[in-house]
Amino acid sequence: MSVDHLSEVFDLVEVRGVISGGFAVRGLWRSCGDISERLKFFAMVGGRARLTTDGIEGPIDLEPGDVVILNGRSWLNVEGGTGNGPRREILPEENDLRFSGADRGVDDVLLGGRIDLNPAGRTLLLQALPPVAHVRASVAAESNLHGSLDRLFEEVSGNRMGSAFAIRQYGQLLLLDVLRAYVHQAELPAGWLRVLTDERLRPALSLMHAEPGKAWGLEELAHAAAMSRTSFAERFRTVSGLPPLTYLNRWRMLLAQRALRDGDARIGALAFELGYGSESAFSTAFKREVGESPLRYRNRVRAESSVGAAFVSP
């Protein structure tokens, strides 16, 4: 797995795993409702449950340590517990990360959250994941998933000094470990997550990522991957869903968006750095991919950032 490339893309699309809810319960229980976020995830910290959502053939059984990512789903039903008593409905106000007195050996313990990304990242990850991605802890035994989930729950339930900061960091690590484990457990759909983990294409991908402004040709990229031009082009399209040079152009646009958000480079200089012969050619390509000109994009995202900063300022 090309971890460096994955980290690089994570930085570009500003991916964040945000813990937003959770509960511990004994006896029969159920939690259901509509989903407003495009990408949500649920982690079964302790106990067992059964998850149902739209777009899947049947319920998914969750065991301790399992994590599920829901991609573009509209509703969710999770239920669990044992016994003959009445089934308790977990209300939204109870899904508030209160775990005082929770016993992971007895209770069903569930954590929930969302995956935040910038617009480019949402497009990439939505295409890279199926409607429901189930990561099984029993299969992920060799990964860091168990450790990340344990540390995250300790911070969520411990109410210790600095826990809010720690929860944000462990939420990030949990998401990374979930995606790492999922790559090894499932047949990924065509997309950036699959191409980043393809060993045969890694040499060609490394060239494009290292020198995105170079005028790469199919012959050169195929040679780096030790494949014929035809075989390379076919495999790249099958794995990524895009022809190699289209992927290169998309990669350039991700780099351009980061530069425009975070830096003050002139548009013409950025165009030259990314391999475009003129500012006009770059602006046309950028508008075709992003939907607005580079200058308008820069002004908009910086204005939105200023409003957000003012909103959270004391």
UniProtKB/TrEMBL annotation:
Residues 202-300 form the HTH araC/xylS-type domain. It comes from the Bacteria. SMART domains: HTH_ARAC. Keywords: DNA-binding, Transcription, Transcription regulation. InterPro entries: AraC_lig (IPR032783), AraC_XylS_family_regulators (IPR050204), Homeodomain-like_sf (IPR009057), HTH_AraC (IPR018060), HTH_AraC-typ_CS (IPR018062), Tscrpt_reg_AraC-type_HTH (IPR020449). PROSITE patterns: HTH_ARAC_FAMILY_1, HTH_ARAC_FAMILY_2. The keyword Transcription regulation applies. This is AraC family transcriptional regulator.
